[in-house]
Amino acid sequence: STEDFVRRCSPAPGSRGQVVPAKRVALLGKDNPNLFETIFHFGTLLLLDCASTADLEEHSDRRRLPSFWFAHGYAEWFACFKRTAAGGFQFGEGISESALRLPRSPKELPSLSELISLSRDDFQKKMEAGGTGPQSPQKLQAQAWAFVYFLKTADGGRRRDALRAYAKAEFAGKGGLEAAKEAFGDLDALDA
Question: What is the pLDDT of residues 113-146, one digit of tens each?
Fold first, then answer.
């Protein structure tokens, strides 16, 4: 039950799940109206965490976890799906619920450089504190999804190779702002 989930892992307010990288588990509240979305979101986070630390004996080394925007952007990508006529899932086809709450003006959002520089620990602190405004956890997560969506789909998907190059840096423990600049070019131009 949700009460058992909250008692066992003390998630951030409003969270329907939590990944525990050191234990390589994702804990989910089972009486969840968006169960598939939650499974795909937290399953993606866990998969990315495990893939990026597979060669480490100590899995709690948070320096090797994928960056916030990469992990949560992809987690939302997989949580946004459409059901196929055969009952399967077509990922990346929906829109992030949190993206619907993004401000209409990009000036109200952090820059891409700020988003890419945000650590998973800093995001977790924002989740625990709650909050509103441009730096609210929901808006940051929505912006991460929007950036992944843009990189995968804009201009006929011509930026997918750059996203793959960045992913390789993430899995090698070398993600971050400099790797993003190398893979995507001028972040200020992308922000415009």
Answer: 999 998 888 887 887 777 677 677 778 888 898 8
Q: Residues with Cβ < 8 Å from 58, sequence gap 6 or more?
A: none
Instruction: Give 81's strand partners.
Output: 91
DSSP state of 11: P
pLDDT band of 151, cuts 50, 70, 90:
very high
Q: Report in angstroms the alpha-carbon separations of 60 from 19, 20, 57, 64, 150.
A: 12, 9, 9, 9, 31
Q: What angle do CA 44, 49, 50 make, to 5 degrees?
A: 100
In angstroms, the Cα distances linking 20 to 28, 49, 183 are 11, 9, 29
Least confident of 38-42, 134-138, 150-154: 134-138
**Model pTM above 0.90:** no
Contact assessment for residue 58 and residue 82, using Cβ atoms and an 8 Å cutoff: no
Residue 158 makes CB contacts below 8 A (sequence gap 6+) with: none
Residues belonging to the chain = 192
